[in-house]
Design goal:
391 residues, alpha/beta, Alpha-lytic protease prodomain-like, Alpha-Beta Plaits, 3 domains, four-stranded mixed β-sheet, three-stranded mixed β-sheet, 10 helices
């Protein structure tokens, strides 16, 4: 686990612990005040705060799982644990809201004679202020820790703050003689909770369905890719989220006749820059293209065996001429280019090398798959000195 992940986990735990303490305290205070102050809306609000304990537990567990290192069964890590935890939080919130609303609809039908007191009003006002403060605190921690479940918990605090506001309005109305306003406010509280739970669940489900980054975030990633030297073009960029992690797939076009190692180095540079400068990018899969194939085209199967067989058959007729190095094959959408280096030991065999080159060219063109042949000739026996070739 990196230092950043450890910091993220510690921040998430801290926010969840503070949330749990505040939820227990507020639930007890509101339940007592609702009972003593004769307010069904405040009692419903207290039960709402009590459900936050369940979501705090889910947040804690999903945080712990999501920060585990990748393993054989989870090679991309455990980031989706947070997304699943967030969906569970949303579902719990929605079910509780539905139950509270239904209970108060029944109370409305039966008629309510409750006349809430100032105790209930004071508790509702205090809860509203505390929960709104908890919302802003938890939201800031969730964004800093890149934690979906902590952010979901923040919105749960906001729903509690709004429900306390609705309860306060209902209590005030009932205290003035409008007895139906207290259970009516409780119904409104329930509907608010249902809405918040649905939103939390919907966002989590979208992430489980591999939703991509926003246009603004995607544009920033494209700028990073384009800033890497020798990236001529890029296309088919795809992103997906896994909890706090972002994964990227992308095609980049590089100069067509550079070495494999240079092309690989360019791709690794793109990958490195995306991970270092991109918004929460955990990893990137970079596909290398020798030309723009975004619209498709002709694809070749491996033809090395055919090309080498043709060259070797011709060189068997010229004993003093041989391959100076491995044959290089370039695969393009519309042509297959072959580069061959021949060598011979002295000037007397140059003519043979030329005749061999012509025969090899003709032989390769006869295959019907090769459209370009480049043959060079090296005079003398090449030896390696200190890792560098010299004549």
């Amino acid at each position: 686990m990196t230092d950043t992940d450890k910091t993220s986990l510690a921040l998430g735990y801290k926010a969840t612990l503070i949330s749990s303490v505040s939820d227990v305290t507020l639930a007890a205070v509101k339940f007592a005040a609702g009972t003593l102050g004769h307010s069904s809306a405040l009692i419903a609000d207290a039960l709402h705060s009590l459900t936050d304990l369940a979501t705090d537990f889910v947040s804690f567990v999903s945080l712990k799982i999501s920060h585990q290192e990748p393993d054989e069964d989870h090679p991309y890590g455990h980031g989706r644990a947070e997304t699943i935890g967030t969906a569970v939080i949303g579902a719990v919130v929605g079910v509780v809201g539905l139950w509270l609303a239904w209970e108060q609809v029944i109370a409305l039908e039966q008629g309510s004679e409750n006349r809430p007191t100032w105790i209930a009003a004071a508790a509702a006002a205090g809860s509203m202020l505390i929960k709104e403060a908890m919302y802003w605190y938890t939201l800031a921690i969730g964004k800093e820790a890149r934690s979906e479940s902590v952010i979901a918990n923040a919105y749960h605090h906001r729903s509690d703050s709004l429900s306390s506001l609705a309860a306060l309005i209902g209590i005030g109305g009932a205290a003035m003689g409008y007895h139906a306003m207290d259970p009516l406010a409780a119904v409104i509280v329930g509907l608010m909770i249902i809405h918040m739970g649905g939103k939390i669940t919907w966002d989590a489900v979208q992430n489980l369905m591999d939703s991509g980054l926003s246009r603004e975030e995607l544009a920033e990633l494209q700028r990073i890719i384009e800033s890497v030297p020798n990236v001529l073009h890029h296309h088919d960029i795809k992103t997906r989220r896994a909890g706090r992690d972002v994964f990227i797939d992308c095609h980049i076009q590089v100069p067509p006749r550079i070495s494999v190692s240079e092309a690989h180095n360019i791709a690794e540079t793109v990958r490195h820059d995306l991970r270092q400068r991109g918004a929460h990018v955990t990893d990137a899969m970079i596909h290398i293209d020798a030309e723009d194939d975004s619209e498709g085209g002709r694809l070749y199967q491996d033809q090395r065996a055919v090309v080498e067989k043709a060259a070797i058959e011709i060189l068997a007729l010229f004993p003093d001429v041989r391959l100076a190095e491995d044959i290089v094959i370039h695969y393009f959408l519309k042509n297959l280019a072959v580069s061959i280096a021949l060598e011979s030991e002295n000037e007397h065999t140059i003519a043979e090398a030329r005749r061999a080159a012509v025969r090899i060219k003709n032989k390769l063109f006869e295959t019907g798959i090769v459209t370009e042949v480049n043959i060079t000739h090296h005079l003398g026996i090449w030896k390696k000195t200190n890792g560098l070739p010299s004549a």
